[in-house]
Amino acid sequence: MDKVLIRALRIDTVIGVYDWEKTITQSLFLDLDMAWDNRAAAASDDYRHALCYETVSNRLTALITEKPIELIETVAEMAANCVMQEFGVSAVKVRVMKPGAVKTAEAVGVEIERSAKSASGV
Ligand SMILES: Nc1nc2c(c(=O)[nH]1)N=C([C@H](O)[C@@H](O)CO)CN2
């Protein structure tokens, strides 16, 4: 299965459970593996057949920074739903890392895998 990848997309936003976190901006780093058949884009060398990682990155940044969020689980789910519903991605793996959240860890995070099939509950 072909994929389009995004690595360490930094999104600066209001994220966290605690009151003090709701008054500051923190960085999240997103990795996405998006199932996409790249053959049409490669054969035609035509951008219109490509899943544009720049457009996806910009959309995710706008979406996640729209309003404060408590859990990184919510961020992962929002990102997965967005790429499937708005960009027609059939399956996606999303990892959300929150550096500095645990003093003794370099980063903590969550990872989810979703597909159009599992999203509809079938
Ligand atoms: N599974 C999770 N655990 C925790 C989260 C989270 O988003 N998912 N968030 C926090 C706090 O916001 C923490 O990051 C503050 O340092 C705690 N646990």
Describe this structure in words.
By secondary structure, this protein is an alpha+beta fold. It has one domain: 2-Layer Sandwich (GTP Cyclohydrolase I, domain 2). It has 4 helices and 4 strands, in the order E-E-H-H-H-E-E-H. It has helices spanning 39-44, 53-64, 72-87, 116-119, and strands spanning 3-13, 26-35, 91-99, 107-115. A 4-stranded antiparallel sheet has the order 1-2-3-4. Strand 3 (91-99) and strand 4 (107-115) form a beta hairpin. Helix 2 crosses helix 3. The longest helix has 16 residues, at 72-87. The protein is elongated. The protein starts with a strand and ends with a helix. The mean pLDDT is 96. The ligand Nc1nc2c(c(=O)[nH]1)N=C([C@H](O)[C@@H](O)CO)CN2 is lined by residues 16-18, 21, 71-73, 98, 101.
Our estimate of the beta-strand percent is: 25-35%
Q: Please state how the strands of the largest beta sheet are arranged side by side.
A: 1-2-3-4
Which overall shape is indicated by the principal axes computed on the Cα atoms? elongated
Bound molecules: the ligand Nc1nc2c(c(=O)[nH]1)N=C([C@H](O)[C@@H](O)CO)CN2
Low-confidence stretches: none
State the major sheet.
4 strands, antiparallel
Helix content: 25-40%
CATH architecture level-2 label:
2-Layer Sandwich
Question: What key attributes describe this structure?
Answer:
FolB_dom, 122 residues, binds ligand LV4SOB2L, EC 4.1.2.25, 32% strand, alpha+beta, GTP Cyclohydrolase I, domain 2, dihydroneopterin aldolase activity
